[in-house]
Amino acid sequence: MGSYSSLLTKSQDSYILGLWGADKYVRTSSIGLSNTNLLLINRFAGFLISRFPKDRLRLRIYGNEVPENFEGTKSTFCKGSKNKKPAFHIYVNCRPLVREFVFALGNRSLLQGESVYSYFAGRFDGDGSISVDTKGAKFCRIVYGNLKDLQKDRVLLNNVKTSVYRYRRAGTYCLYFSTETLNKFLERISPYLVSSKLI
Predict the structure, then answer these.
(1) Same domain membership, residue 171 and residue 141
(2) Inside any domain, residue 197
(3) Does 49 reside within a domain?
(4) Rounded CA gap, 48 and 98, in Å?
(5) I want to staple 192 with a disulfide (CB 3.0 to 4.6 A). Which of 4, 20, 78, 118 is the partner?
(6) Vertex 74, ends 69 and 75: CA angle to 5°?
(7) pTM for this one?
(8) How far apart are the first and last CA of the chain?
């Protein structure tokens, strides 16, 4: 087999893999990101622009205004969003890129070194949060739609204590980080975070 995708080997692209892994927007021939956070949309768009001419990108807007930096991108205004704030969907039509993302996420066990923490920074930006209880203790979690996906990520964190909680009503699973190792984990992912939620 030839060289692996930059999604598995370059930390800046491993972040994109983690971010997409949290959202997983994919169709037969298109791949992209849906979010209300323009910082994340811009970051994903930057990755796409590194591979395609800007006019290949497509942007769906669930709101009234085209955001800055997207002039020259084919934009479509959509109705029906229940979001309280504008939402955006950036994507590109490219079957080889779809295959690359699906392969990379399915083989994320190949991530090494800083790419692991960059990947988790993307995952955290996409579906992570931190809360503080009344005693001042920090709790960090990343939400997953299924247990198999969570377990694959948990294996990557072989030296980080975590626990799993299932929210039956929401149909989700949460990966919680132990207070013993939380600060070290946050320290490792913080250089790669785009949308800082750290307290």
Answers:
(1) yes
(2) no
(3) yes
(4) 12
(5) 118
(6) 80
(7) 0.91
(8) 43
Please state, in angstroms and rounded to a whole number, the distance separating the CA atoms of residues 51 and 117.
23
Q: Are residues 25 and 93 in the same domain?
A: yes
**Percentage, residues of the chain above pLDDT 90:** 64
Claim to verify: residue 41 and residue 58 sit in the same structural domain = yes
Alpha carbons 33 and 19: distance in angstroms, whole number = 8
Alpha helices in 50-146 (DSSP H): 95-106, 114-127
CA-CA distance, 26 to 11, in Å (whole number)?
22
**30: phi then psi, degrees, rounded to nearest 5:** -130, 150
Q: How far apart are CA 135 and CA 183, in angstroms?
A: 17
Lowest mean pLDDT among 36-50, 55-69, 91-105, 141-155: 55-69
CB 41 within 8 A of CB 16: no
Query: What is the domain range of residue 69?
Result: 6-108
Give the CA angle between residues 129, 157, 178 to the nearest 5°: 55
Helix (H) or strand (E) holding 186: helix 182-189
Same domain, 17 and 76: yes
Gyration radius of the chain over CA positions: 17
90 and 74 in contact (C-beta within 8 Å)? no
